[in-house]
Here is the input.
Amino acid sequence: MKMYKSFPGLMLFVAAAMVMLLAGGSAEAKVRVVTSTPDFAAIAREIGGDKVDVESLAKGYQDPHFVDAKPIYITKLNRADILVYNGLDLEVGWLPILVTGARNSNIATLNSPGNVDASRFLTGVLDVPTGPVDRSMGDVHPRGNPHYMLDPRNGILVAKGITEKLSEVDPENASYYEENYRNFEKRLELKIAEWAKELAPYKGAKVVSYHKNLNYFTRWAGFEDAGYIEPKPGIPPTPSHVAALIKKMEAEDVKLVLASNYYPQKTPRIISEKTGAVFLSLPTSVGGEDGINSYFDLFDAIVGQITSALQSKAGAAGNGGSMHNG
Amino acid sequence: MSVRRIIAVLVISLIVCQGLLHGEAFAQGNEDIKKELNELKQMMEKMQKRIDDLEEKNSALEQQAREREEDVMVKDEDVVVKEETVTVPATPSQGAPQGFLSKVVQSLNPEISVVALITPTWYSLNDPIVFAHNDPENTGVNMQEIEVGFQSVVDPYFRFDSFFSFRTEGVELEEAYGTTLFSIPLNSQFKIGRARAKFGRINQIHRHAQNFVTLPIVVAEFLGEHLNPTSVEASFLVPVPWYLELSASGGSPDVETPTFGRSPDANNLGNLLYIFHMANFFDVGESLGVSLGASFATGSNASGPDERSNLYGVDFFAKYRPLKNNPYQEVSLQSEFMWRQAETPEEELEDYGFYVEGMYRFAKRWNTGLRFGLTDTNTPIHEEEDHDHEHEEEEEDEHGHDDMLGLLGRAYRISPMLTFNPSEFSRIRLQYDYLNQNYGPNQHAIFLQFQYAIGAHGAHPF
Here is the structure.
């Protein structure tokens, strides 16, 4: 019985906790938006303006498949009014456990008012497996390729969805959000036309990318996917696969090797050296490189890097000179 | 579409057959038959109506999908006209049409996962010293554990997670608990059911997600394979700039553990098992995360009606993972220290122990680590049986080992480890254990563990 003496200490511990709990919790007027990746954060900022506080859990230079489920994210999610995430199983390894821990009925389930799976706003998803699938095909996403934010047209659809959600949660400012959306849509459509024009001369160019995460971009840009450096999604390249890929690239005159800047750069570099194709390590999310602070910056950077690489390549070929690759 | 029709027809014909059989067996008066036929007719009419409804619904859905498709096309044409350039934006290809049925299946079944741990093992001793239940038992190929999980949201208010641990000798209900999903004052959350208790760090991590083949000695000796009482646990997220969670749980230690057990005086609330935990997490820059915790558990130890055990623990975990440049490299350090006071009718025992493990992931699929673990006691107990007893008794002793209160002396173990993960779903792990005991023989062991995970994609533990 003598061990009961430890109970008062415990009670003190619990009481102290209660006091701290009661001390917290101030009322803020702004809508708090947490997003899984920075692309959604950038768009939420465009729409929400100064009426929202926006924060992204993952960084733009981070592989969104493998984000650490740091407990600190739970505190951010705990206070969120809206959670915007990519869906299509992109964050399956880290986000659900955080959402459960967040104790927040705004976002807790698929049906919660602030739980926003942005893939719901899309009109189409690429690479949905049609036949039977199993994991001998690598880490397949049975519901389709989740990297849809790399098609700038999807930015408009997602912005529209976020606008609706913000208006629902904060109806007082609905017209403000709507106006910001109109503005954003107009600017993005103009930019899309501009980027399309820049990319037009290279339509049909064959590209090889590291992972399937660039498919939305290449398909929008009118490039042809000639292969992937990963033999299967999520499986690092093997020498035999790389050798076969090099052969294929030489036969098909592939001009570009692309990889997100969070993927290993060594193999793509070797492949580009062997084949004479240009290798570009691209930022593939807002914040992926210094200076990329908006959804516009992101495509300015990607389109800019690709067109200037293809241009210099065409120039070099035209001069009959040797090829210089990064 | 046609599948549904076939199913409906099958169901109807089944009912009809059954009805006819019933009719035959019991048809004594015409009345009965008429009544049943009428019932059947009604039933069929209802079914037909249902089928019609479903067909209508389906065609409406198809219509919607078609409209959406057209929408997209129109939109794309718009863009082309506006741009007046050569580039024709590719239409995002439509996803494979997901049937009505597949959606139902997808949304209503819980997520199912199966993880198997199979471990070829070599022990230097003929009667190997094994500390935890799910450690490899013998020289040979050991089926360490097959963990089957069913997890799902229950409704807007709760989710339910259950895990069954299959071993050669039987099944254990490892976890089965509901978790509240709705906001409760004080940022609290309740977990109701059997769950791995929030005591220290490793106790909350399933075997297949741990970093080594064997459980640290201190954990095996003090908590057993895992401390998973059936209880009600409340945890509070404290609004401070870092992550601070306080939790308290009360429940029944209905799974015998070395430190806690069901008291013969089980109906006394004071004799239940109470566990308290404090978890802190700090972000030190974006690359380094540090977590610090303290735990306390108190409850009956089943050695007598009023005999209690108190268990104190502190845990530390730090992970360094640079987000830029080397995205798949990480270094982590994890340690736990535990101290136990236990009353028995004869004496008061004081035992303690700790482990420290360092991990280095040097490539996307490779990691290596080293663990040192030690347990010691201020009050060594004396083993009642000698070591050179007959085999049968030794076997009994081994099974009883998990439930033994008190330590014989000092033991330490050093374990280097190398792991290769062919994919996220399989793992091959090589480990060597050197065990040194000041009360018994030393032991060498080599493990080659194979892990397979199928089904739902699990969470990556932090």
Q: What stands out?
A: Chain B touches chain A through 77 residues (CB under 8 Å). Confidence is low (pLDDT under 50) at residues 16-29, 70-105, 385-402 of chain B. The first helix of chain B runs from residue 2 to 26. Chain B is about 25% helix and 40% strand.
